[in-house]
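cron nightly-structures :: item 1 of 1
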Amino acid sequence: MPPAHIALAALVAAVWGVNFVVIEIGLDHFPPLLFSALRFLAAALPAVFFVGRPKVAWKWIIGVGLVLGVAKFGLLFTGMDQGAPAGLSSLILQVQAVFTALFAFVALGERPGPVRIVGMAVALGGIAVAAVDEGASGPLLGFLLCIAAAACWGVSNVMTRKASPPDSLNFMVWVSLVPILPLLGLSLLMEGVDRDMAALRSLDWTGAGVVIYVAWITTIFGFGAWGYLMRHHPASSVAPFSLLVPVFGMSSAALFLDESVSPLRWCAAALLVGGVALTSLSGGRKAVRSSRQGEAEPEPDPVAAGRT
């Protein structure tokens, strides 16, 4: 990769890592489900008028929109609202690579090799260490909701792989339309009309800024730039940069939110990032070998690359 593309990949990882800090700030301004709905509203509009018609069947757009948008992000934002720290959340979500491999085996018959199985076991060991740390020092409910969010992300990754969208940005913009009304409905039901209206009436520049960041910077710029890199370089060259997301997430949370990182959490981070690397990158090397033998290398799933 040329230096400019390396810098772009690192910038995307930084944008996605800092996003967890921005979410934490946004939760001081909005209830979690309303915040998630606003995120998708801003990501879909006005972009949907410029990306062209959907390029996959509506069943995949609706399915991924519900699982990724409503379930995954609803659980993540609620988990962080319940006290899951931003840095830890950025780390825990990376276990989606393990869930993706498990669900791909069940739904698609993709049998993981020995290296990938070892990686999954190491990553799950990291989750166990993080659970011990969080159970001793923080709210366990928020931690468990983030685990559930990672599982939903794994399901949506398999659905996205099955849909095989030819234009990932087009797909993501249309997917962003789906969760808006369900999330608004859930917010009105669970968070209440009064709380939602109070948040909207008190909207200030900070609140508007966090919505713009999570929608336009994280989703539109991040996803578009990552898709550009994936189209110009092998997955094995681009995917490792996603492992920087929890590094930026934990460091920015420590810098801007004064979140402390215990020795157990550093241990969990090492295990989880190492396990995810083995789980994710072992398949990438196989794809490169196949392409060198004259077979077309399948387009990787950028949704599984650590974006939030």
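cron nightly-structures :: done
The two ends are 24 Å apart (CA to CA).
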